[in-house]
Design goal:
Elements (H helix, E strand, L loop, with lengths): L8 H9 L2 E4 L4 H13 L3 E2 L11 E5 L2 E4 L2 H11 L2 E4 L5 H4 L2 H15 L1
Parallel strand pairs: 2-3
Antiparallel strand pairs: 1-4, 1-5, 3-4
Length: 113
């Protein structure tokens, strides 16, 4: 998936905070079904004021869906497909560096396939 430079403050913060997710460009009915899937699991929308607290929260920006844990990301991928990634093995310092996160996403997407 080609991604454009991210200019969203919320998405940049989520990118540094969430360690699990799925990249999937859903449209129309699939996108609505994905939002319903999230609501059915009682995940609330995360925003910057919640900081690093991601328990019970999720975030969606463009084609990237962020989840609080591996199990939720796996379930979402099974339901809607896409490229699952995990940053669980990154240190706190590495989570702050965009290039480190993207390298880890690419590496983990191969492992998660």
């Amino acid at each position: 998936m080609s991604r454009t430079p991210n200019r969203s403050t919320y998405a940049k913060a989520a990118d540094k905070t969430f360690r699990h997710g799925v990249d999937n460009d859903l449209t129309g009915a699939e996108f609505s079904a994905a939002l319903t899937w999230v609501a059915d699991r009682q995940l609330t929308n995360w925003d910057i004021k919640h900081g690093a607290d991601v328990a019970g929260r999720c975030y969606q920006f463009a084609g990237r869906y962020y989840f609080p844990d591996r199990e939720t990301a796996e379930a979402f991928q099974k339901a809607f497909g896409g490229r699952r990634w995990s940053l669980a093995d990154l240190s706190e310092r590495q989570m702050l560096i965009a290039k480190e996160r993207e390298i880890a996403r690419d590496r983990s997407a191969d492992d998660c396939a």
